[in-house]
Design brief:
mainly beta, two-stranded antiparallel ribbon, 78 residues, CPE0013-like fold, five-stranded mixed beta sheet, elongated
Length: 78
């Protein structure tokens, strides 16, 4: 039996220029779970400027995996 070590990564990124401090994001495709910590570290260094729409790419090709990180909530400017 094969063990599937991939799943969608869901996390938060910081925002500037909105009443919200963070925005929810997820991976566009499943990512190997062994990369989740490194992905989270990379995303912790990112600040995103509002406004953001659902589906906007926050980080393209994270860690050269071929997977994009996309926003899952509309965030308006202050």
């Amino acid at each position: 039996m094969e063990i599937n070590n991939k799943d969608f990564l869901t996390t938060l990124v910081r925002i500037k220029g909105s009443k919200y401090n963070v925005a929810p994001v997820k991976s566009s495709k499943p990512i190997d779970k062994s990369l989740w910590i490194e992905c989270s570290k990379a995303l912790s260094r990112i600040y995103v400027g509002a406004p953001i729409k659902i589906g906007d790419v926050i980080c393209k090709n994270i860690l050269n995996t071929g997977v994009d990180i996309i926003c899952t909530k509309n965030i308006n400017k202050e």
